[in-house]
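Fold this complex.
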Amino acid sequence: MKRPSAPFFAPAEQGGATGQLPPEGGGERVGERVAAAQRQIAAAGSPATARLDAQVLLAHLLGVERSWLFACPELRLSPEQIAQYSALIARRCRHEPVAYLTGHREFYGLTLAVDSRVLIPRPETELLVEQVLQAATQAAPRSLTVADVGTGSGAIAVAVAAHAPNTFLYALDNSCEALAVARHNVAQLQLEARVRLVASDLLASLPDPADIVVANLPYVTSTDYPQLDRDVRDYEPPQALVAGPAGLDLIERLLAQLPAHCRAGCLVALEIGYNQGNAVQALVQSSLPGATQFVLRQDYQGHDRIVTFRL
Ligand code: GLN
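Structure:
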């Protein structure tokens, strides 16, 4: 097994549930316990991520970096640690997402707090952030007002604010529960001066007109929803995922609100479902005849994912 170079023990940034290192004697070895947990998770229906999940959850519990587990497979867990680890593995075997079990997820190089009040940020959504950052960089040093509609955990808003100093963000959501999570993330990253949280039905309560509107709104169709992975369907908030029979109810309503809330030349960047490119293009053309520079981009899997245009 590849061992990380010294120093092999580095405390994790966010301590785990116990913050206790395993004692030297008694109990079960780290390597064996992780291997057993991997088998359990795989057998419960998540073979693709079983090994990583088992490692991430133990590292979280012990309050160490994952690399520490590779360096110390012989160390033994205390009975209390074994019990706590077994409880976490049992929850994972019931398909509870790892990010909810650890309470955080990496997004665009930032560590975000997440729980069942918000959608877990996805890697595809980083493509949406890239579009916004590109436009912000081009406009610098001019300061831009950006509206992140349906901010959830605040992932897009904080990623943009952290990487583009010439932006002021309004992070909007109709869920007060989601806004509480976003508020925590904004404070944690010390971005309060440039990210303001607003309870709003889409753009309805946006205080100032926007130079950029970015949104990862719910877009799953009501027929696809029951077929989603159990991890998603059984644990993530449905109101952050499902948007009517074609998955377009919220995107359609957002398009209708745009003219009243956008400055001239406003960039609009939307995340969409894997097969919604044509439908969204048709909606934009029919509801916003003044829209220009419509571009549809695919994600890493080659699925429709990001739409941008100017108003
Ligand atoms: N990409 C998410 C999923 O497939 C859906 C996110 C959304 O509806 N905005 O689970």
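The mean pLDDT is 93.
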